[in-house]
Amino acid sequence: MGKYLKELEHFQNLKRRVFRSEPIRVLVTGAAGQIAYSLLYSIGNGSVFGKDQPIILVLLDITPMMGVLDGVLMELQDCALPLLKDVIATDKEEIAFKDLDVAILVGSMPRRDGMERKDLLKANVKIFKCQGAALDKYAKKSVKVIVVGNPANTNCLTASKSAPSIPKENFSCLTRLDHNRAKAQIALKLGVTSDDVKNVIIWGNHSSTQYPDVNHAKVKLQGKEVGVYEALKDDSWLKGEFITTVQQRGAAVIKARKLSSAMSAAKAICDHVRDIWFGTPEGEFVSMGIISDGNSYGIPDDLLYSFPVTIKDKTWKVVEGLPINDFSREKMDLTAKELAEEKETAFEFLASA
Ligand SMILES: NC(=O)c1ccc[n+]([C@@H]2O[C@H](COP(=O)([O-])OP(=O)(O)OC[C@H]3O[C@@H](n4cnc5c(N)ncnc54)[C@H](O)[C@@H]3O)[C@@H](O)[C@H]2O)c1
Q1: Residue 10 confidence (pLDDT) above 80
Q2: How far apart (Å, rounded) are the C-alpha atoms in residues 108 and 18?
């Protein structure tokens, strides 16, 4: 009987908390696509914003996808998720971006056969300029914007530039998938699980020039934390195959699956957004693409570059003062150079888009 009463009390407390919180409004774009299909359930079931946070979930896709989006909407309804106060499916930006607390921008123009990188960039500048302007006009000024659609860093910069009334710090792009890939490779090599590995870093662009760096990473072995270099004693693997495996993991998944990463991308988005919402654990840092202004690592200002960050009170801070060796320096500069070139091309289009 005591156990039953305790459970009842717990349930009533939970119910009270759920009904007391105001719902937050969360947008997912590209909502008819494959990443969204893996992502929406996790958002709806409380795995991202907490089990007592009601949500109004807004789904945006382009007009030709409205039929598919209807199916996604039906499935979300059929999940009967108690935290979902409403689900809105639309192809209209003025509805999608209204009063947002969080915007997860997944939808973008995919690369088609024969398409030059420049053409892809141009098409995406157009999309992210429009969506940035819609955020500026309709969303809350406190909105947190997470860009996933590729080229994610430059799309994020474009959206931020197009939303001048929203602080630049509210924009970030996803490099958490690369971060998770790096953690997983180290864990596999050492025969531990990925939660035993922490503080890997992805520097720079979410592209094959990214630099996965484990110079500051730690692994828990027999209950003791040691540096990854010390634990592995295999510098040539760490400086060679490990880096290329992480850099080219996306292409390897496409080759095997004939489709790009979706389940792992959705999981990484959940990790990224949950950390923004609740903060990073003490003593741990994560990677995310953020504005480079004023960093201490010699990366030029005004790039959307992936750094190690800690997060508290929904605000990120770059982890400062990590020593950088010559090997890392070269790789960090190379990926910065690529981002500067992407930015230059994007900005040529931005004026005319
Ligand atoms: N940053 C990362 O780590 C990472 C990882 C994996 C994938 N991605 C990128 O995420 C994006 C989505 O991947 P996916 O596998 O879900 O693709 P997908 O093709 O399955 O879905 C994309 C969806 O976006 C929609 N869309 C296109 N333009 C839109 C617009 N202007 N507004 C709203 N919706 C729009 C499409 O109609 C489609 O439904 C791709 O650009 C992919 O390269 C990024």
Answers
A1: no
A2: 34
- Give the Cα separation of 196 and 186 in Å (integer): 10
* Percent with pLDDT over 70 in the chain: 94
- CA-to-CA distance for 205 and 184, rounded, in angstroms? 20
Q: Ligand 1 pocket check: which of 40, 95, 148 to mutate, most ligand atoms within 8 Å of Cβ?
A: 148
CA distance 192 to 18: 37
Please, which pLDDT band fits residue 1 given cuts at 50, 70 and 90? Answer: very low
Alpha helices in the chain (DSSP H): 2-20, 34-44, 66-78, 93-96, 117-138, 152-161, 176-190, 228-232, 235-239, 241-247, 249-257, 263-278, 326-352
Helix, strand or coil, per DSSP, at residue 31: coil
| Secondary structure of residue 65 in the 3-state scheme | helix
- At 65-82, the pLDDT tens digits run 999 999 999 999 999 999
Task: For residue 219, report the phi and psi dihedrals to the nearest 5 degrees.
Answer: -130, 145
> Could you read off the pLDDT of 171-210 as tens digits, one per residue?
999 999 999 999 999 999 999 999 999 999 999 999 999 9
Give catalytic status of residue 206 as yes or no: yes
Query: With DSSP H G I counted as helix, E B as strand and the rest as coil, what are the percentages for the chain, rounded to 5?
Result: 50, 20, 35
Strand pairing category for 315-318 and 304-312:
antiparallel
What's the CA gap between 200 and 245, in Å, rounded? 15
- SS3 at position 173: strand
Whether this prediction's pTM lies above 0.90 is answered by yes
Neighbours of 138 (CB within 10 A): 16
pLDDT of residue 112: 77
Which residue is it, tokens 């007009």? 63
Return d(Cα 132, Cα 74) in angstroms, integer.
29
Q: Is the Cβ–Cβ distance between 215 and 147 less than 8 Å? A: no
Summarised one tens digit per residue, pLDDT across range 111-121 is: 777 777 788 89
- Ligand 1 contacts (CB < 6 A) are 29-30, 32-36, 60-62, 65, 106-110, 127, 148-150, 152, 174, 177, 206, 260-262, 265
